[in-house]
Amino acid sequence: MPMPAMTDSSSPLNVLFLCTHNSARSILAEALLNHLGDGRFKAYSAGSSPRENQRPHPLGLQVLQKAGITTEGLHSKSWDEFAAPGAPHMDLIITVCDNAAGEACPLWPGHPATAHWGYADPSAGEGSDAEKLEAFRRTMHAIHRRLELLVSLPQDKLTRAMLQSTARELVGPA
Fold first, then answer.
1. Which one of the listed residues 74, 97, 113, 147 is annotated catalytic?
2. How distant, in Å, are the alpha carbons of 5, 129, 132 from that of 44?
3. Which of 100, 159, 170, 173 has the fewest Cβ atoms within 10 angstroms?
4. Looking at the whole model, is its pTM more than 0.90?
C-alpha cells in the first residue's frame, strides 16, 4: 500500500534536491530516491545556477547505471522551474551542497519542509579517471545510506508537522 504524502493520501511525497549546477549530487539523489522510494516518493532535482547546456556529469550517470539505477530522463534544470506556476508541489526540499544551502532560494509554493544534507562535490577532485569514478561512487553510497533512512521512516514522521525536524535529523555516516 503506498505511503500517504503530507498533502494527499493517494500521492507520493514530492522531494526536490538542490545543488548549484544540478549535474552531480542532486542528480544522484533524484535517481536514488526514485529508485528506493517505491512509488511513495517522487524525487526531482534542480540547480540554483546551472550552466548553459548543463548536463548530468557522465561519471555520475556511470555509477548509477553500474548500480542498476535508471538514468532515463535525468537532465540538469534550474530551480526556477519548480517555483513557477503549475510546477509540482514540493513537500520537502533538500540542499545537497553547501553553496546552494547558503543562497537565497525562491519562494516555494506551499512552504515545504527544508533540510541541508551537505556532500563534497565528487566532480571537483583531481586524479586519475579511476579516482574520479571512485569519488562519485562514494558520494552515491553516502546519499544512498541517508535516503534509505528517509524511506524507512514510519508515516507519522512524514507528516507536515514532523517532516521539517525529521529530515534534518537524518544524519549520514561520517
1. 97
2. 15, 28, 25
3. 173
4. no
* Residue 19 is a catalytic residue: yes
Can you give the residue range of the structural domain that contains 97? 13-165
Q: Is 97 a catalytic residue?
A: yes
pLDDT, one tens digit per residue, over 19-30 is 989 999 999 999
User: Domain count of the chain?
Assistant: 1
| Structural domain contains residue 54 | yes
Q: Where are the beta strands (DSSP E) in 92-147?
A: 92-95, 113-116
What proportion of the chain, given as a percentage, has pLDDT over 90?
Answer: 57
Q: Which of 23, 28, 119, 33 is nearest to 75 (CA)?
A: 23
Tell me: pLDDT of 65 over 70. yes
Which of 90, 91, 67, 73 has its CA nearest to residue 27? 73
